[in-house]
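TA notes, week 10

Several of you asked for a full example with nothing omitted. So below is the full record: structure tokens for the whole chain, then the designed sequence directly under it. When grading your own attempts, check the secondary structure regions first.
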């Protein structure tokens, strides 16, 4: 034990020295592996061989699972010493941690704080998360239960933290904590709520108004308090210990309470499951990891971000994705400035597809200088509105586990709106950031030449006023459907808050569903360049509006009784309105444009958004001789300009088993750069008038201009 204590002291002292200068987790992009040993036996592998194998695969960090979880966590499966352990198992952590550091692996302990066995829950009924009907929560991941952060369970967790911090680890990762759509109404939550707000807890079934906003605030703050107390304990033992959790998804987080903007203050990193892909992959955006990474960068306040990816095709835990899919998950993550977490089961650990991940790890290790302290060069911002997601009927919510979502209205489908607008921009090679409500309300907007509002239905008066000022001072706006028709608590207004900006006013009701109807151009503004059809398939729904000061470029046709019911007549309902306001331009479509694009990929609607992206925001990079299946990300670093190219060109199905390589892709950037090279091949690329030609593009490359 004396030798172990000396080793423990030496390992702990070294990171503290580094932390005095810069936190180790900010030194380089993290390449994290999570070998899900909790589903088997945490101590089944030789520590030295296991650590060596992880390092051999190119990882520099890990989530180490040393708590066995058959059907959920309990106090019987700890493979380390703890004062609250119900059984003493072999102390695998003591044997493993020094081996990990010997091979350069930073070790986060994976700590599941949202899934417990029913038997353990029955032993602690006072800890259990409670439904609104007063019954304890069950069915978590089909078989388990969960505990509430406001109960004495938190003290049990904190003791486990203290016990873990006695080992030479580098941090703690919380999987959870989360609320559920009908929790938590335990007596501790009720008492705490009553003390803070002087009234009884409202229901979660009515998702509008100040009561619901207050309840979300309470639950988010309860999670924040739990993180804060966890952080105080860990940092009090060792300041260099990192803490972070499985953060909020790009979706409605009202059910879980995981609001990243609030919770990041108590974390050292911000992570989310952007790389978990499941079900019918043809309906999953190819660029899902990158879109999540862009939002996390906005929410993280300068802290590092992590995209969690599963190597399996969910919901099949043991179904490994093909190598091209794994490379693309990885590439799309690092292209958008996030670190990588890859979840791999022991059954996949030695499969040949691991070679693809090793290749990506070694590429990132070799070129880490080009992925550190970079900034987006995008001039277009697309808004993902958490406020709308939480209050609006067209938004789904995460429920008990990752594979179940709440019912939502098909009218104004928020996920579809965002997916359609972002796909149109990505396929037209427009670099963009994903920004949020906090950006709109509090942060500078002048870095963006154009802002897209995909059905940002719920909006405060303050945000509306800032957007009007943004346009008047030269910014450009593109919006659709019910944007700003509701206040920030989901209560419908009599008119759009942005009515003076759009140049239209809201009428009565929503038209639709329109199954075989049309939009008809009545003028030909520059924004509709290249769109020559006389009849354009209509969006599925549209808000009835009255034209004001804007130019009505398109109108909806009068509804047909059937698809062969003759040639449709023109209605009075505006379909696309364009106007100048001050120094800026505004385009507003009353239809659910993004969701219609996501559903039908109508060429003219895709072209409209592409035109808006290229005309309203001048891109700092132009890519030619490449299909729309190539994602383009532009970033800056000191005197460098970095163009990331992610090639999703497969064989028209998913999972992608083979990427179609591209030849002679031409990249042109602004500014005067004398040299350029491909990071993937190391090949120098001659620069002529700001342009280079990339001879061959497989899944991924980064073109560096200096």
């Amino acid at each position: 034990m004396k030798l172990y204590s000396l080793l423990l002291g030496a390992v702990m002292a070294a990171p503290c020295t580094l932390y005095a200068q810069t936190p180790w987790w900010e030194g380089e992009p993290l390449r994290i592996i999570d070998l899900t040993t909790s589903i088997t036996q945490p101590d089944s592998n030789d520590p030295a061989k296991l650590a060596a194998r992880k390092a051999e695969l190119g990882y520099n960090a890990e989530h180490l699972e040393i708590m066995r979880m058959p059907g959920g966590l309990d106090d019987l499966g700890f493979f380390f010493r703890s004062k609250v352990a119900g059984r003493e198992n072999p102390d695998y952590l003591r044997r493993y941690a020094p081996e990990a550091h010997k091979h350069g692996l930073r070790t986060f302990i994976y700590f599941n704080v949202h899934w417990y066995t029913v038997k353990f829950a029955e032993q602690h009924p006072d800890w259990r998360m409670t439904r609104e009907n007063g019954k304890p929560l069950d069915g978590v991941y089909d078989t388990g239960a969960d505990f509430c952060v406001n109960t004495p369970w938190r003290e049990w967790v904190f003791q486990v933290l203290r016990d873990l911090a006695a080992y030479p680890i580098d941090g703690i990762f919380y999987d959870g904590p989360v609320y559920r759509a009908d929790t938590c109404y335990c007596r501790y939550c009720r008492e705490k709520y009553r003390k803070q707000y002087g009234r009884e807890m409202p229901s979660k079934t009515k998702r509008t108004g100040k009561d619901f906003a207050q309840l979300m605030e309470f639950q988010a703050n309860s999670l924040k308090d739990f993180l804060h107390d966890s952080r105080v304990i860990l940092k009090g033992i060792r300041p260099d210990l990192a803490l972070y959790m499985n953060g909020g998804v790009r979706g409605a987080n009202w059910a879980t309470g995981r609001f990243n903007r609030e919770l990041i203050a108590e974390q050292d990193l911000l992570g989310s499951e952007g790389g978990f892909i499941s079900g019918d992959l043809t309906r999953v955006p190819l660029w899902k990891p990158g879109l999540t990474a862009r939002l996390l960068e906005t929410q993280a306040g300068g802290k590092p971000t992590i995209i969690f990816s599963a190597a399996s095709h969910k919901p099949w835990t043991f179904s490994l994705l093909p190598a091209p899919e794994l490379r693309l998950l990885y590439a799309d993550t690092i292209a958008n400035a996030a670190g990588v977490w890859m979840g791999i089961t022991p059954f996949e650990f030695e499969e040949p597809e691991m070679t693809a991940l090793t290749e990506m790890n070694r590429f990132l290790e070799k070129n880490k200088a080009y992925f550190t302290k970079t900034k987006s060069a995008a001039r277009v911002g697309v808004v993902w509105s958490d406020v709308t997601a939480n209050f609006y009927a067209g938004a789904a919510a995460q429920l008990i586990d990752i594979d179940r979502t709440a019912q939502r209205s098909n009218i104004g489908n928020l996920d579809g709106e965002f997916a359609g607008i972002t796909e149109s921009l990505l396929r037209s090679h427009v670099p963009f950031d994903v920004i949020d409500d906090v950006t709109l309300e509090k942060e500078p907007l002048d870095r963006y030449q154009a802002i897209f509002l995909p059905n940002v239905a719920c909006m405060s008066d303050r945000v509306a006023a800032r957007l009007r000022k943004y346009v008047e001072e030269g910014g450009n706006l593109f919006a659709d459907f019910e944007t700003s028709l509701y206040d920030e608590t989901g209560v419908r207004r009599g008119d759009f808050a942005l009515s003076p900006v759009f140049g239209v006013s809201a009428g009565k009701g929503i038209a639709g569903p329109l199954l075989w109807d049309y939009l008809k151009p009545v003028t030909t503004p520059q924004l509709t360049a290249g769109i020559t059809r006389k009849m354009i398939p209509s969006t599925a729904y549209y808000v009835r509006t009255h034209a004001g000061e804007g130019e009505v470029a398109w109108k909806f046709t009068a509804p047909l009784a059937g698809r062969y019911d003759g040639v449709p007549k023109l209605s009075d309902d505006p379909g696309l309105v364009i106007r100048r306001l001050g120094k800026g331009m505004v385009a507003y479509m009353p239809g659910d444009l993004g969701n219609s694009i996501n559903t039908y990929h109508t060429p003219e609607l895709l072209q409209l958004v592409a035109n808006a992206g290229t005309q309203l925001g001048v891109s700092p990079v132009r890519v030619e001789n490449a299909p729309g299946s190539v994602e383009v990300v532009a970033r800056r670093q000191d005197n460098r300009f970095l163009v990331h190219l992610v090639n999703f060109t497969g064989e028209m199905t998913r999972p992608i088993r083979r990427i179609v390589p591209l030849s002679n892709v031409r990249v042109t950037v602004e500014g005067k750069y004398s040299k350029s090279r491909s990071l993937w091949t190391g090949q120098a690329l001659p620069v002529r008038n700001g342009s280079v030609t990339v001879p061959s593009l497989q899944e991924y490359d980064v073109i560096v201009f200096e």
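The first strand starts at residue 31 and ends at 35. Use that as a sanity check on your answer.
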